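Quick log. Single chain, no ligands specified.
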Amino acid sequence: MKMKLIYIAIMILPLCFGNRSVAQNARFIHQGVIEYEKKVNMYALIKKNMGKTPSSFYEQAFDAFKRSQPQFKQLKSVLNFSDQKTLFTPVDSKTASQGSFFGDEPSALQGNIIYNDLSAKTSTIQKKVYEETFLIKDKTRKFTWKITDEKRDILGYSCRRANGIMMDSIYVVAFYADKIPVPGGPESFAGLPGMILGVALPHENITWFATKVSDVPVSAETVKPPVKGKPMDLEGFKTFLGTALKNWGDYAKAAMKGFMM
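-> predicted structure:
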């Protein structure tokens, strides 16, 4: 009888710990810190921006770039979130391509500090455009999302895929974790029923993926909007860019897209 009780206890023990593990994994995170890495395929981006018939000067500059620079540019950032508010901040770093001829490709930069109040659906963006800094206050960016059944594991979180459109024409693939029920993400990506841990812009040759998720308390003082920069709304910023880039020729469209992201 004693041996039978011991056997039953041994069989039940893993089940108890298993249930405990499931309960731990079911924890929902409402505040914390997420680290992201932005990766840009510089070779593909530059080649596309050069157009179908680049000049010999650009071809030579591109060849020189490929000999001296890596194909992928990597940039770090941090997202603090609490109480349905998020603050995205780039991590300042000197990358190898900075200072090179193609080092200032707008899409390959990371000059935005973005505060989102997801409940109020408002956004404050401190955006750097070369030597100028702007403070853009407007509604959160609009996306058209379609959630799919595809799933992907990111840092132990089961993430569901959503396909979307931003800025009327840019195709977006995002993976969000419903165990982090905050509809935010890196940069201005938002609007899904969970935190976005991975983003790909396939036609723009850019990705953002979380590299670390920390379930830690975040104070309201940490998640505050930026205050520096020339104030304007998004439409005013777009008008400014149109004027500033009017003499940039065929490259103006690519530059406009990069600065507006």
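Confidence is low (pLDDT under 50) at residues 1-25.
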